[in-house]
Every structure is written in structure tokens, then in C-alpha cells.
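job 3f2a | input accepted
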Amino acid sequence: MATLEWVSWFNHHRLMESIGHIPPAEAEMNYCQQVSGQAIPA
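job 3f2a | predicted structure (42 res):
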């Protein structure tokens, strides 16, 4: 369970300076929106 919690934190809560102080999951979502040209439903 601890490993799953860490993976969730790593992907959704930590802020990465190199990508503009946003979580990696948010950066991936932004990238997918740019590539597809449409919004991804939440």
C-alpha cells in the first residue's frame, strides 16, 4: 500500500521545476490536449 501511495504522490502531487512547477500528470494532460487539439474530459 505504501508503494501505491508513493506512486500516486510522484505522479499527481510533486511539482517539477523543469516543466513549470506542475505535476507530471498535469503536464501529460496538457501535452495530450495540444496534440489532439481538443479538451480531454475530466
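job 3f2a | Residues 5 and 30 are 24 Å apart (CA to CA).
job 3f2a | closed
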